[in-house]
Design a protein that fits this description.
about 450 residues, alpha/beta, Rossmann fold, N-(1-d-carboxylethyl)-l-norvaline Dehydrogenase, domain 2, 3 domains, six-stranded parallel β-sheet, 14 strands, binds uridine-5'-diphosphate-glucuronic acid, EC 1.1.1.22, oxidoreductase, NAD binding, NAD(P)-bd_dom_sf
Amino acid sequence: MKATVFGTGYVGLVTAACLADVGHDIVCIDVDEERIETLRRGKVPIFEPGLQELVASNAQAGRLRFSTNTPIGVRFADLFFIAVGTPPREDGSADLTNIFSVARTIGEHIDCYKIVVDKSTVPVGTASLVEGTIQQAMRARGADHRFDVCSNPEFLKEGSAIEDFTKPARIIVGTDSETVRKTLQDCYAPYNRNHDKLISMDVRSAELTKYAANAMLATKISFMNELANIAERLGADIEDVRKGIGSDPRIGYQFIYPGCGYGGSCLPKDMRALAHAARDAGFTAELLETVERVNNAQKHTLFHKLEQAFDGDLRGRRIALWGLAFKPNTDDMREAPSRVLMEELWEAGANVAAFDPEAMGEAHRHYGNRPMLIFASSPQEAAKGADALAVCTEWKQFRIADFGWLKANLRNPVIVDGRNLYDPAQVRRHGLLYYAIGRGEPA
Ligand code: UGA
């Protein structure tokens, strides 16, 4: 099959590469010339395990091409995936400028029946607005062609995007057209094996399903973080509680890890957009708004623990920071808890010596000119001579730490762990003060 993918961000690029990999003929369109040039040179501008190889091999095979020429993209195929960014506006609502710009171009160049698939995360009702925009642009030039707009949200996670795309838990298709359903069924067939994972529904329900899934995940995390804060005050260990409740299959073990707050480009933005959409519809989403508030507060927890360790005075201290990305296996620092911590530390007069296996480039981009940030080239370099160590991201290489070395090389024996990576008894045996999430105070 031939398909055009509009947008070469996480969702667009992964969709395009994975569809090309099973033999579809794909053209990727992006208005960012530099990005397209980079992709044409065989370089992927984002860090995502396996994506570079997948893009390169399919580009080489001629099944994956890149262009900034939108009209060519419209003429190339009869199946379009819209996967452009929908950044948050100041008020939390999703900015749909990029979506409508693609829709207009489709309307300006449509020449036969086309299927338009919304893959970006978009508020309920967007498909019908896209339809209206295409109609308007088409009519303005006196043309009249049939087309369908459907919702097919993507559920991939950064860091395991290819695995998520190729082994989907579900393929949501929001449409009332049997032609659309059948076309997407065929398109995804190579990845829809063993049992049929395609769930079809009306378009508005499909749009809401995407937000509902992320809202559920965010709620689980904030629930656990709140429970961790209670456990800490009641002298219980949240890690035991986590195992205790996770063993109930109705609750499950996934997404109940307490920590220093959820970040990334999706959960926080989608929570705000959903709450905003609810408000616009005259309903206050109390639970969703609280989940987001609990998360924002949780991002301050490591700073408070450091303040506590240093009697409220962090001036002139040097804090080692392991992990800048919002989670492992990505270089993405959008809404990362590490940023809240660093900014609070600077405000309090402390310096930060940071190390991340992949996000140092991103850190340079965000904070390159900050004199109070030292870019370390290894975890050890960050920690050596620091007053305390804070851990923000659970990268594999931080999971095993040499506590003897840390005791000898930290100026103060303080570890503040935002991901509960270590066994408190083992850390404390080395004479280190260990502050974790929901695991009691250091003895
Ligand atoms: C999230 C969803 O998991 C995907 O299903 C969805 O497709 C995607 O958003 C999207 O809308 O595009 P992602 O943002 O890549 O994926 O990251 P997650 O793996 O969901 O992690 C989000 C945050 O939650 C991270 O900061 C992570 O550290 C935190 N987290 C996750 C916890 O604090 N505890 C947990 O138990 C799990």
